[in-house]
Amino acid sequence: MRVSPLLIGLGCLAAASTAVSAQSLAPGESGNRVPPARFVSAVDNQGPTEADRLTLGMWVTAGNVTTYTIGNSWNDWVLWLVFDKLREPSPYVGKAEPWLATAIEQVSDDARVWEITLRDGVTWHDGTPFTAEDVAFTFEYYREGPANRWTHHASSVPRMVGIEVLDRLKLRLTSEKPMPNFDRITAADLPIIQKAQWEGVTEPRSFTDLGIGTGPYRLVAYEADRFYRFEANEDYWRGAPVVKHLDLVMIKDPQTMFTALKTGEIDGAARPVPPELVLQWQDDADLEMIGAPTLWGAWLDINVGRVPFDDRDVRRAVTLAVDPEPMLERIMLGQGKPGTHAWPHVDSFWTKPDLGAPHDPDLAAAILDDKGFVDTDGDGMRELPDGSPLTWDLKIASNQPLFLRAAEMVQAQLAEVGLRVVVETLDPASLSALWRTREFDLRIADITPHGIADQDMLIILYRGDARRELVEDTEKAEIVRRWLEAETRADRLAISYELQEYQTRYPNRVMLWYPESTFAYRWQAYDNYRPSAGYGIFHKYSFLPDAVRTGVVDPLLDD
After folding, report:
1. d(CA 243, CA 223)
2. Where do the H-state alpha helices sit in 195-311?
3. Which residues of 104-118 are buried (b: 16+ CB within 10 A; e: fewer)?
4. Cis check: omega of the bond before 5, within 30 degrees of 0
């Protein structure tokens, strides 16, 4: 391993702290355009477009590179170094380019049956040919096996009931419900795994072999919670990568990460630069920065499994009392967009263009009055309808100073309508566990593009919420039922807009801001990064030849 001892020390220190081509919109469809990247630095230097080795800092836990050990969208760009999808780059932009598939065609009027033609000549990292058997196995394994971040594409939304290999490079898929966006969402998100490696694996989360993919890099070594080492796949079907070796070092603490970048211990930081550093580093001669559309967000999560949040009107009052506008200016220094645009992400193709969450504390107070939440003891804070004290906890991660500021502002805004909130910081692991344990009233957390920029995930999150809700929301359930039965892209998008409007009026979550994510790197080491919506600038497309990037990266505009 050629990572320096100092870098390993940094990591340990941090741990302690046509059918397939881009399609135009069909009649009746709508959608948003993800804004292009923005050059942030004062000077656009012209550094090398190839490199023998790069060392990049990453902030999430390092482990094996499989779909079961990389389980979220915080670090899935690492997975895509090794694995490919049928279409790329992402399910967030409403279109996708041919990748492992050369054609994906709807062959039934009800959008339940699709046929896929695969690219000939693609090989796995072990030299064996990629075939339809691998794709069929992937869908079967994800449908029948343990769940991971991607399995819902085969087991739930949509659920595959027929998987048929037609010949060496062609297969047919049939789903339980219509899947009119199969070619734009499922095919652009699902990583394809090798049948020969995985068909005997019954406990995938314990799998320790190095993953065999078709992607531009091979994982050759890793040490859990410390580093990855990748080598270029010189036989990659899209062309040999222009960076031959990638070393990824885990540095959890943001201050340590950006100190390492500033001093030259790493060549790039795969973590957005804090707003104050963006302003400080604009004139730095050794660094360049690009503002890239990561489609992330920060939100206030409301626990629908607790009283009184089972009452949709109480949740609405919380939304009306929270004002995201000053948060963007005071916390993010104006770098991004306010959560007033609501959920999903304002720049997602699938988001209703005129969606918005109103701020109306007077209406919030009136709703609370009607519900019997009144100040009975004259201290300025409301009590519960039975007269008992009302105090809600608001939990955040201890390593997120921006979220602490946001929590304090939410606390003050809710206090203005008589709601008492106590802010509590937790270590990052405990905060992350709240998604499962639900031991909170309110929490502030990051949300990745998979959660707020993917139309299918609206339904996945709805189903998770429905399991936790104390009272069934029949009106929302009916909207979801119609969405699942919709047979065309346009119908499904229109019903999705209805769902978005409903969840904005009666929310389970309140968007606070969408950051304008800015990434920094040392341009003299490598200066050929390009943004891709949902991934920032650190992803496999940034390390591929320029000629094959069309359609999977966004143009870089020098404003």
Report:
1. 22
2. 195-198, 254-263, 275-281
3. bebeeeebbbbbbbb
4. no
Residue 491 confidence (pLDDT) above 70:
yes
* Other CB atoms within 10 A of residue 353 CB: 10
Q: Would you state the torsion angle of the CA atoms of residues 458, 461, 466, 467, taken in this order, to the nearest 10 degrees?
A: 160
Q: Are 155 and 463 contacting, i.e. CB atoms less than 8 angstroms apart? A: no
Lowest mean pLDDT among 31-40, 44-53, 385-394, 530-539: 31-40
Residue-wise pLDDT tens digits, 378-424: 999 999 999 999 999 999 999 888 999 999 999 999 999 999 999 99
- ∠ CA(445), CA(36), CA(24), 5° rounding? 105
Hey, where are the domains in the chain?
A: 5-210+520-557, 297-515
Distance between the two ends of the chain, CA-based, in angstroms? 40
**Amino acid of residue 271:** R
Could you tell me which residues come within 8 angstroms of residue 383 by beta carbon, excluding any fewer than 6 positions away?
Answer: 373, 374, 375, 376, 377, 389, 390
Q: Name the superfamily (CATH) of residues 5-210+520-557.
A: Dipeptide-binding Protein; Domain 1 (3.90.76.10)
pLDDT at 357: 94
The tokens for 542 are: 């940034």
**297-515 sits in which CATH class?**
alpha beta
φ, ψ (nearest 5 deg) of residue 197: -80, -35
**463-468: long-range contacts, CB 8 A cutoff, minimum separation 24:** 463/156, 465/304, 465/508, 468/303, 468/304, 468/305, 468/438
The residues facing 394 across adjacent strands are: 423, 442
Q: Which two tokens stand for residue 344?
A: 């999903």
How do 217-223 and 227-232 pair as beta strands? antiparallel
pLDDT tens digits, residue range 216-231? Answer: 999 999 998 899 999 9
Whether residue 177 contacts residue 111, with contact meaning beta carbons closer than 8 Å, is answered with no
Cα–Cα distances (Å) from 74 to 99, 207, 418, 538, in that order, read: 23, 21, 36, 12
Handedness of CA 503, 508, 510, 511 (dihedral sign): negative
The type of residue at 250 is M
Can the peptide bond before residue 27 be classed as cis, meaning omega within 30 degrees of 0? no
Report the percentage of the chain scoring pLDDT > 90: 80
Q: Quote the CA–CA distance of 399 and 397 in Å, as a whole number.
A: 5
